[in-house]
Amino acid sequence: MKVVVNRQYGGFELSNEAFDELIKLGWKVTEYSTEGNLVDPSAEIVRNDKHITFNKYSFGRYYGNEIELRTNPLLIDVVERLGERAYGRLATLEIVEIPDDEEFTIEDYDGREWVAGAHRTW
């Protein structure tokens, strides 16, 4: 199984180019209404005038530790294809391969992440 993690202090973040690629691959985009609510709460991506990010609610909880997001085949494809161009402002993304049957979490210290399994780390 492949997992996308951030190897730099600062936090997991994609570039606008990477988000644009995800949108081309079919990820839904929403924005905030004038009342401050998401127009489409089920969309995976939120865009406003100055910023584009993941909709942390569409993945269940804060996306920084969301397994569903980090193992998403489309996200992995975009990070593999774009390489460094996929990195957000304070991110250095890496795809880590772990055994398919491994239960794991994504841990971090000040935004620098690693994959922690039951008996080992990557």
What does this 3D model show about the protein?
The protein has 122 residues and is an alpha+beta fold. It has one domain. It contains three helices and seven strands, in the order E-H-E-E-E-H-H-E-E-E. A three-stranded mixed β-sheet has the order 2-3-4, with helices on one face. The chain has a two-stranded antiparallel sheet with strand order 1-5.
The percentage helix is: 10-25%
How many strand units?
A: 7
Distance between the termini: 12 Å
- Weakly predicted, low-confidence segments: none
Number of helices: 3
Order of adjacent strands in the largest pleated sheet: 2-3-4
Mean of residue pLDDT values: 89
What proportion strand?
Answer: 15-25%
**Main β-sheet description:** 3 strands, mixed
Number of domains: 1
Question: Secondary-structure blueprint of this entry?
Answer:
Layout: E1 2-6, H1 16-24, E2 29-30, E3 45-47, E4 52-54, H2 67-70, H3 73-82, E5 93-97, E6 104-109, E7 112-117
